[in-house]
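REQUEST FORM: STRUCTURE PREDICTION
Request ID: SP-0412
Submitted by: Lab K.M.
Chain count: 1
Length (residues): 401
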Amino acid sequence: MKKYTYLLFLLFSIASFSQKFEGLAPTPPMGWNSWNTFETNIDEKLIKETADILVSSGMKEVGYNYIVLDDGWMAKERDVNGNLVPDPIKFPSGLKNLIDYVHSKGLKFGLYNCAGTKTCGGYPGTRGFEYQDARFYASLNIDYLKYDWCNTEGINAKEAYTTMSIALKTAGKPIIFSMCEWGDNQPWNFGKPIANLWRISGDIYPCYDCEFSHGSWSSWGFFKIAEMRKDIRQFSGPDHWNDFDMLEVGDGMTLEEDKSHFALWCLLASPLIAGNDLRKMTPQTLKTLTNKELIAINQDALGIQGFKYSEENGIAIWVKPLENGDWAISFFNKSSTEKEINFNWKQNTIVDEINNLSTSFDKLNYSVRDIWNAKNLKNTKDIFNAKLKSHDVITLRLNKP
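STATUS: Completed
RESULT:
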Protein backbone atom coordinates (compact mmCIF):
# COMPACT_ATOMS: atom_id res chain seq x y z
CA MET A 1 0.00 0.00 0.00
CA LYS A 2 2.83 2.37 0.88
CA LYS A 3 4.54 1.55 -2.42
CA TYR A 4 1.29 2.27 -4.31
CA THR A 5 0.80 5.56 -2.47
CA TYR A 6 4.37 6.59 -3.22
CA LEU A 7 3.91 5.75 -6.91
CA LEU A 8 0.79 7.91 -7.08
CA PHE A 9 2.64 10.74 -5.37
CA LEU A 10 5.54 10.39 -7.81
CA LEU A 11 3.24 10.41 -10.84
CA PHE A 12 1.38 13.44 -9.51
CA SER A 13 4.64 15.26 -8.86
CA ILE A 14 5.85 14.61 -12.40
CA ALA A 15 2.51 15.63 -13.91
CA SER A 16 2.30 18.78 -11.83
CA PHE A 17 5.85 19.88 -12.62
CA SER A 18 4.79 21.35 -15.97
CA GLN A 19 1.17 22.09 -16.73
CA LYS A 20 1.63 24.17 -19.89
CA PHE A 21 2.12 23.07 -23.46
CA GLU A 22 5.91 22.97 -23.77
CA GLY A 23 7.92 24.38 -26.65
CA LEU A 24 5.36 26.81 -28.09
CA ALA A 25 7.54 29.89 -27.50
CA PRO A 26 11.22 29.00 -27.98
CA THR A 27 11.75 32.68 -28.80
CA PRO A 28 9.68 35.65 -27.56
CA PRO A 29 6.25 35.70 -29.29
CA MET A 30 5.66 38.41 -31.88
CA GLY A 31 2.36 39.81 -33.07
CA TRP A 32 -0.31 42.47 -32.55
CA ASN A 33 -2.83 43.12 -29.77
CA SER A 34 -5.95 45.30 -29.94
CA TRP A 35 -5.87 46.86 -26.45
CA ASN A 36 -3.37 49.74 -26.58
CA THR A 37 -5.19 51.61 -29.32
CA PHE A 38 -8.74 50.29 -29.36
CA GLU A 39 -9.45 48.94 -25.85
CA THR A 40 -12.92 47.32 -26.14
CA ASN A 41 -13.83 49.13 -29.40
CA ILE A 42 -13.11 46.15 -31.62
CA ASP A 43 -14.93 44.33 -34.43
CA GLU A 44 -14.31 41.83 -37.20
CA LYS A 45 -13.63 44.50 -39.83
CA LEU A 46 -10.74 45.87 -37.75
CA ILE A 47 -9.26 42.44 -37.20
CA LYS A 48 -9.51 41.42 -40.87
CA GLU A 49 -7.92 44.69 -41.98
CA THR A 50 -5.15 44.23 -39.41
CA ALA A 51 -4.50 40.68 -40.59
CA ASP A 52 -4.31 41.89 -44.19
CA ILE A 53 -1.82 44.63 -43.28
CA LEU A 54 0.36 42.30 -41.20
CA VAL A 55 0.84 40.31 -44.39
CA SER A 56 1.01 43.10 -47.00
CA SER A 57 3.32 45.35 -44.94
CA GLY A 58 5.96 42.68 -44.45
CA MET A 59 5.40 42.42 -40.70
CA LYS A 60 4.42 38.76 -40.95
CA GLU A 61 7.55 38.07 -42.97
CA VAL A 62 9.82 39.33 -40.15
CA GLY A 63 7.97 37.38 -37.45
CA TYR A 64 4.75 39.13 -36.35
CA ASN A 65 2.37 36.18 -36.58
CA TYR A 66 -0.08 36.45 -33.65
CA ILE A 67 -3.24 38.58 -33.72
CA VAL A 68 -4.59 38.79 -30.18
CA LEU A 69 -8.13 40.03 -29.61
CA ASP A 70 -8.12 41.65 -26.19
CA ASP A 71 -10.95 42.53 -23.77
CA GLY A 72 -14.43 43.22 -25.13
CA TRP A 73 -14.85 40.44 -27.67
CA MET A 74 -17.64 38.69 -25.75
CA ALA A 75 -21.22 39.58 -24.82
CA LYS A 76 -21.86 40.97 -21.35
CA GLU A 77 -23.43 37.71 -20.13
CA ARG A 78 -22.83 34.01 -20.63
CA ASP A 79 -25.61 31.95 -22.21
CA VAL A 80 -28.01 29.70 -20.24
CA ASN A 81 -25.43 26.88 -20.28
CA GLY A 82 -22.68 29.10 -18.93
CA ASN A 83 -20.87 29.41 -22.25
CA LEU A 84 -19.04 32.54 -23.37
CA VAL A 85 -20.83 34.25 -26.27
CA PRO A 86 -18.91 36.30 -28.86
CA ASP A 87 -20.54 39.71 -29.27
CA PRO A 88 -22.90 39.26 -32.29
CA ILE A 89 -22.82 42.99 -33.10
CA LYS A 90 -19.03 43.21 -33.19
CA PHE A 91 -18.63 39.85 -34.91
CA PRO A 92 -21.72 39.27 -37.07
CA SER A 93 -20.03 36.50 -39.08
CA GLY A 94 -19.08 34.63 -35.93
CA LEU A 95 -15.76 34.40 -34.15
CA LYS A 96 -14.89 31.02 -35.69
CA ASN A 97 -15.16 32.49 -39.19
CA LEU A 98 -12.90 35.36 -38.17
CA ILE A 99 -10.33 32.97 -36.71
CA ASP A 100 -10.43 30.89 -39.89
CA TYR A 101 -9.83 34.08 -41.90
CA VAL A 102 -6.77 34.97 -39.80
CA HIS A 103 -5.45 31.42 -40.13
CA SER A 104 -5.96 31.56 -43.90
CA LYS A 105 -3.43 34.40 -43.96
CA GLY A 106 -0.81 32.19 -42.37
CA LEU A 107 -1.24 33.96 -39.04
CA LYS A 108 -2.16 32.72 -35.56
CA PHE A 109 -5.04 33.92 -33.38
CA GLY A 110 -5.29 34.78 -29.70
CA LEU A 111 -8.09 35.67 -27.29
CA TYR A 112 -8.28 37.40 -23.92
CA ASN A 113 -9.95 36.54 -20.66
CA CYS A 114 -9.39 37.07 -16.97
CA ALA A 115 -8.79 35.00 -13.85
CA GLY A 116 -11.42 36.97 -11.94
CA THR A 117 -15.19 36.98 -11.91
CA LYS A 118 -15.21 39.74 -14.55
CA THR A 119 -12.66 41.05 -17.00
CA CYS A 120 -11.11 44.49 -16.59
CA GLY A 121 -13.76 45.83 -18.99
CA GLY A 122 -16.64 44.24 -17.06
CA TYR A 123 -17.24 41.23 -19.31
CA PRO A 124 -17.58 37.64 -18.03
CA GLY A 125 -14.41 36.41 -16.36
CA THR A 126 -13.32 32.82 -16.14
CA ARG A 127 -13.37 32.15 -12.38
CA GLY A 128 -15.31 28.90 -11.92
CA PHE A 129 -15.51 28.26 -15.68
CA GLU A 130 -11.88 27.36 -16.40
CA TYR A 131 -12.41 23.94 -17.98
CA GLN A 132 -15.54 24.99 -19.84
CA ASP A 133 -13.79 28.03 -21.31
CA ALA A 134 -10.69 26.02 -22.20
CA ARG A 135 -12.84 23.60 -24.21
CA PHE A 136 -14.47 26.58 -25.93
CA TYR A 137 -11.08 28.02 -26.91
CA ALA A 138 -9.97 24.63 -28.21
CA SER A 139 -13.16 24.34 -30.29
CA LEU A 140 -12.43 27.75 -31.83
CA ASN A 141 -8.90 26.57 -32.67
CA ILE A 142 -7.15 29.56 -31.09
CA ASP A 143 -3.38 29.60 -30.60
CA TYR A 144 -2.82 32.06 -27.72
CA LEU A 145 -4.61 33.05 -24.51
CA LYS A 146 -3.89 36.27 -22.64
CA TYR A 147 -5.19 35.83 -19.09
CA ASP A 148 -5.64 38.99 -16.99
CA TRP A 149 -5.95 39.63 -13.24
CA CYS A 150 -8.91 42.00 -12.63
CA ASN A 151 -11.69 41.31 -10.07
CA THR A 152 -9.63 38.65 -8.27
CA GLU A 153 -10.22 39.64 -4.65
CA GLY A 154 -9.48 36.68 -2.37
CA ILE A 155 -8.04 34.54 -5.18
CA ASN A 156 -4.56 33.01 -4.98
CA ALA A 157 -2.62 33.92 -8.12
CA LYS A 158 -0.54 30.75 -8.41
CA GLU A 159 -3.64 28.58 -7.88
CA ALA A 160 -5.74 30.51 -10.38
CA TYR A 161 -3.15 30.47 -13.15
CA THR A 162 -2.26 26.83 -12.50
CA THR A 163 -5.93 25.85 -12.80
CA MET A 164 -6.28 27.60 -16.16
CA SER A 165 -3.03 26.15 -17.42
CA ILE A 166 -4.16 22.61 -16.57
CA ALA A 167 -7.56 23.32 -18.15
CA LEU A 168 -5.92 24.34 -21.42
CA LYS A 169 -3.71 21.25 -21.37
CA THR A 170 -6.74 19.04 -20.65
CA ALA A 171 -8.68 20.57 -23.56
CA GLY A 172 -5.90 19.26 -25.79
CA LYS A 173 -5.31 22.14 -28.21
CA PRO A 174 -1.76 23.58 -27.95
CA ILE A 175 -2.27 27.21 -26.88
CA ILE A 176 0.37 29.69 -25.71
CA PHE A 177 -0.56 30.77 -22.19
CA SER A 178 0.23 34.41 -21.37
CA MET A 179 -0.25 35.40 -17.73
CA CYS A 180 -1.12 39.08 -17.31
CA GLU A 181 -0.75 39.33 -13.53
CA TRP A 182 1.06 42.74 -13.41
CA GLY A 183 3.87 41.50 -11.17
CA ASP A 184 2.06 42.04 -7.85
CA ASN A 185 2.38 38.35 -6.93
CA GLN A 186 5.81 37.94 -8.55
CA PRO A 187 4.71 35.47 -11.24
CA TRP A 188 8.33 34.93 -12.30
CA ASN A 189 8.73 32.86 -9.12
CA PHE A 190 6.08 30.32 -10.11
CA GLY A 191 5.35 30.88 -13.80
CA LYS A 192 7.80 28.61 -15.63
CA PRO A 193 5.82 25.32 -15.41
CA ILE A 194 2.51 27.15 -15.87
CA ALA A 195 2.89 29.70 -18.65
CA ASN A 196 4.96 30.55 -21.70
CA LEU A 197 5.20 34.22 -20.67
CA TRP A 198 4.08 36.48 -17.83
CA ARG A 199 3.63 40.19 -17.41
CA ILE A 200 5.99 41.74 -14.90
CA SER A 201 4.40 45.15 -14.29
CA GLY A 202 1.29 47.26 -14.57
CA ASP A 203 0.20 48.60 -17.95
CA ILE A 204 2.58 50.43 -20.24
CA TYR A 205 1.94 54.06 -21.30
CA PRO A 206 3.26 55.76 -24.47
CA CYS A 207 5.96 57.86 -22.84
CA TYR A 208 9.68 57.56 -22.21
CA ASP A 209 10.06 57.54 -18.44
CA CYS A 210 6.81 58.78 -16.92
CA GLU A 211 4.21 57.54 -14.47
CA PHE A 212 0.62 58.14 -15.59
CA SER A 213 -1.79 58.01 -12.64
CA HIS A 214 -5.29 56.57 -13.04
CA GLY A 215 -6.10 57.35 -9.40
CA SER A 216 -5.92 53.97 -7.71
CA TRP A 217 -3.27 52.62 -10.10
CA SER A 218 -0.65 53.82 -12.55
CA SER A 219 0.59 53.12 -16.05
CA TRP A 220 4.29 53.40 -16.76
CA GLY A 221 6.63 54.67 -19.43
CA PHE A 222 8.77 52.00 -21.06
CA PHE A 223 12.00 52.93 -19.30
CA LYS A 224 10.20 52.95 -15.94
CA ILE A 225 9.08 49.36 -16.58
CA ALA A 226 12.55 48.25 -17.65
CA GLU A 227 14.16 49.74 -14.55
CA MET A 228 11.40 48.45 -12.29
CA ARG A 229 12.13 44.83 -13.17
CA LYS A 230 15.78 44.85 -14.21
CA ASP A 231 16.68 42.34 -11.46
CA ILE A 232 14.53 39.36 -12.53
CA ARG A 233 16.33 38.42 -15.72
CA GLN A 234 17.38 35.02 -14.34
CA PHE A 235 13.74 33.89 -14.54
CA SER A 236 13.42 34.50 -18.30
CA GLY A 237 14.42 32.22 -21.15
CA PRO A 238 13.15 30.00 -23.96
CA ASP A 239 9.45 29.16 -23.46
CA HIS A 240 9.25 31.15 -20.17
CA TRP A 241 9.60 34.86 -20.91
CA ASN A 242 9.41 37.97 -18.77
CA ASP A 243 6.79 40.06 -20.62
CA PHE A 244 7.47 43.81 -20.34
CA ASP A 245 4.07 44.56 -21.95
CA MET A 246 2.92 45.46 -25.43
CA LEU A 247 4.77 47.89 -27.66
CA GLU A 248 3.75 51.55 -27.85
CA VAL A 249 5.72 52.17 -31.06
CA GLY A 250 3.58 54.35 -33.33
CA ASP A 251 1.28 55.48 -30.52
CA GLY A 252 2.33 59.12 -30.17
CA MET A 253 5.92 59.19 -28.96
CA THR A 254 8.74 60.81 -30.92
CA LEU A 255 10.71 58.83 -33.48
CA GLU A 256 13.68 58.76 -31.11
CA GLU A 257 11.52 57.43 -28.28
CA ASP A 258 9.96 54.78 -30.52
CA LYS A 259 13.42 53.60 -31.54
CA SER A 260 14.60 53.49 -27.92
CA HIS A 261 11.50 51.60 -26.85
CA PHE A 262 11.90 49.01 -29.58
CA ALA A 263 15.63 48.58 -29.00
CA LEU A 264 15.14 48.15 -25.25
CA TRP A 265 12.40 45.51 -25.71
CA CYS A 266 14.68 43.63 -28.11
CA LEU A 267 17.54 43.68 -25.60
CA LEU A 268 15.18 42.53 -22.83
CA ALA A 269 14.03 39.53 -24.89
CA SER A 270 10.49 40.73 -24.27
CA PRO A 271 7.64 39.55 -26.50
CA LEU A 272 7.21 41.99 -29.39
CA ILE A 273 3.46 42.59 -29.49
CA ALA A 274 2.62 45.73 -31.47
CA GLY A 275 -0.29 47.82 -30.21
CA ASN A 276 -0.66 50.57 -32.78
CA ASP A 277 -3.32 51.10 -35.45
CA LEU A 278 -1.66 49.41 -38.41
CA ARG A 279 -4.09 51.10 -40.80
CA LYS A 280 -2.62 54.53 -39.91
CA MET A 281 0.99 53.43 -39.52
CA THR A 282 3.63 55.79 -40.88
CA PRO A 283 6.50 54.48 -43.00
CA GLN A 284 8.88 55.32 -40.16
CA THR A 285 6.84 53.32 -37.64
CA LEU A 286 6.84 50.36 -40.00
CA LYS A 287 10.59 50.71 -40.52
CA THR A 288 11.15 50.68 -36.75
CA LEU A 289 8.92 47.67 -36.13
CA THR A 290 10.44 45.65 -38.97
CA ASN A 291 14.14 46.24 -38.31
CA LYS A 292 15.35 42.72 -39.03
CA GLU A 293 18.68 43.09 -37.27
CA LEU A 294 17.07 44.26 -34.05
CA ILE A 295 14.45 41.53 -34.27
CA ALA A 296 17.30 39.02 -34.65
CA ILE A 297 18.65 40.26 -31.31
CA ASN A 298 15.25 39.77 -29.69
CA GLN A 299 14.84 36.33 -31.27
CA ASP A 300 18.39 35.17 -30.54
CA ALA A 301 18.49 31.43 -29.87
CA LEU A 302 20.28 31.80 -26.52
CA GLY A 303 17.17 33.50 -25.16
CA ILE A 304 19.09 35.54 -22.59
CA GLN A 305 17.49 38.71 -21.26
CA GLY A 306 19.81 41.70 -21.46
CA PHE A 307 20.85 43.94 -18.60
CA LYS A 308 22.01 47.45 -17.74
CA TYR A 309 25.78 47.71 -17.87
CA SER A 310 26.14 51.30 -16.68
CA GLU A 311 24.52 54.71 -16.43
CA GLU A 312 26.42 57.96 -16.20
CA ASN A 313 25.80 61.56 -17.22
CA GLY A 314 22.40 60.70 -18.69
CA ILE A 315 23.72 57.86 -20.88
CA ALA A 316 22.47 54.37 -20.04
CA ILE A 317 24.24 51.39 -21.58
CA TRP A 318 22.37 48.08 -21.86
CA VAL A 319 23.85 44.87 -23.22
CA LYS A 320 22.63 41.42 -24.28
CA PRO A 321 24.68 38.26 -24.81
CA LEU A 322 24.01 36.54 -28.15
CA GLU A 323 24.81 33.15 -29.61
CA ASN A 324 28.25 32.44 -31.07
CA GLY A 325 29.86 34.78 -28.57
CA ASP A 326 28.36 37.95 -30.09
CA TRP A 327 26.97 40.83 -28.01
CA ALA A 328 24.41 43.59 -28.53
CA ILE A 329 25.00 46.94 -26.88
CA SER A 330 22.74 50.01 -26.84
CA PHE A 331 23.52 53.56 -25.76
CA PHE A 332 20.39 55.42 -24.57
CA ASN A 333 20.36 59.18 -24.06
CA LYS A 334 17.95 59.61 -21.15
CA SER A 335 18.66 63.33 -20.80
CA SER A 336 16.88 66.27 -22.41
CA THR A 337 19.94 67.46 -24.35
CA GLU A 338 22.20 66.00 -27.02
CA LYS A 339 25.13 63.99 -25.68
CA GLU A 340 28.47 62.90 -27.07
CA ILE A 341 29.48 59.24 -26.76
CA ASN A 342 33.15 58.40 -26.31
CA PHE A 343 33.33 54.72 -25.42
CA ASN A 344 36.75 53.17 -25.04
CA TRP A 345 36.21 49.45 -25.52
CA LYS A 346 39.55 48.45 -24.03
CA GLN A 347 38.67 50.07 -20.72
CA ASN A 348 35.48 48.02 -20.35
CA THR A 349 34.80 44.41 -19.46
CA ILE A 350 31.24 43.12 -19.71
CA VAL A 351 30.26 40.35 -17.31
CA ASP A 352 26.97 38.44 -17.21
CA GLU A 353 27.29 36.74 -13.83
CA ILE A 354 23.97 34.91 -14.07
CA ASN A 355 24.90 33.11 -17.28
CA ASN A 356 28.65 32.98 -16.63
CA LEU A 357 29.46 34.94 -19.76
CA SER A 358 31.93 37.77 -20.19
CA THR A 359 34.08 39.59 -22.70
CA SER A 360 37.16 41.74 -22.35
CA PHE A 361 37.85 44.07 -25.25
CA ASP A 362 41.56 44.31 -24.52
CA LYS A 363 41.77 40.59 -25.39
CA LEU A 364 39.23 40.19 -28.18
CA ASN A 365 38.70 42.47 -31.16
CA TYR A 366 35.07 42.43 -32.30
CA SER A 367 33.77 43.81 -35.58
CA VAL A 368 31.07 46.44 -35.03
CA ARG A 369 27.74 46.82 -36.82
CA ASP A 370 25.58 49.95 -36.41
CA ILE A 371 22.10 48.43 -36.60
CA TRP A 372 19.90 51.50 -36.92
CA ASN A 373 22.01 52.83 -39.78
CA ALA A 374 22.64 49.37 -41.29
CA LYS A 375 26.33 50.22 -41.48
CA ASN A 376 29.52 48.34 -40.67
CA LEU A 377 31.86 50.35 -38.47
CA LYS A 378 35.47 49.49 -37.70
CA ASN A 379 36.13 47.34 -34.63
CA THR A 380 36.62 47.48 -30.90
CA LYS A 381 40.23 48.54 -31.19
CA ASP A 382 38.96 52.05 -31.90
CA ILE A 383 37.15 54.30 -29.43
CA PHE A 384 33.48 54.58 -30.40
CA ASN A 385 32.51 58.22 -30.94
CA ALA A 386 29.03 59.47 -31.76
CA LYS A 387 26.53 62.22 -31.04
CA LEU A 388 23.19 61.14 -29.62
CA LYS A 389 20.04 63.24 -29.57
CA SER A 390 17.76 63.41 -26.53
CA HIS A 391 15.87 60.13 -25.97
CA ASP A 392 17.57 58.59 -29.00
CA VAL A 393 19.44 55.29 -29.12
CA ILE A 394 22.45 53.74 -30.84
CA THR A 395 22.44 49.94 -31.07
CA LEU A 396 25.57 48.04 -32.05
CA ARG A 397 26.11 44.37 -32.71
CA LEU A 398 29.54 43.12 -31.77
CA ASN A 399 30.53 40.10 -33.86
CA LYS A 400 33.10 37.81 -32.32
CA PRO A 401 36.14 37.11 -34.50
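NOTES: Residues 1-16 have pLDDT under 50 and may be disordered.
Reviewed by: T.R.
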